[in-house]
Protein: CvpA family protein
Organism: Bulleidia extructa W1219
Amino acid sequence: MIISQEWVLWINVMVVMILLGNMFFGYKNGFLATIYSLISFVVVYVLAYLLSPGLSKLFPIHPFFPKEIQLYLRILKIDIYMDQVLWFVIALLLLKIISGVVYYVFKKIHEIPVYHVFSSLLGLLFGIVEGVGVCFVLLFVLQSGLFKNGKDISRQTILKPIQSTSEIVYRATMEKKWFDDLKIDWNTYQKKFREMRKK
């Protein structure tokens, strides 16, 4: 898949909206609610994923389906998998409700007059961090191999500084470590890599 050159503008607009949106909601909701929102988003999905296999074994759902559907699922050998998916959705919804109640409490704390100013400023700063994190995800999607020209397009957008930073950090840490583990000479690789880029 190839990204059209016209999408550069729209990607830039998307990045600006992500950053401004996260800053706005961080400022509006306060530090505790903002940081809790990010952490709970990850925790809720992980918990739902971890709980679903056990719940599907203890309380299988597919036996309550009509017999024709049960037979169809058994033939395809996805009856257990279907239980896990359904329990994942159920667990996710229940955890989201619990998470929403806690989030509401944090928003109420944010309304306390003395705490409000500091909470808003910290929320704004954390909103920026959260926005940059979302931009990293967007950059990862562009460079994941789904798009042939994803890297070239990302270099033409305002994601370029993030891309450059991530490449430097990656090459300075993880990539070098992998090459050390594989007993490959790092300097030789770097030299060959530069020669290939010149071609």
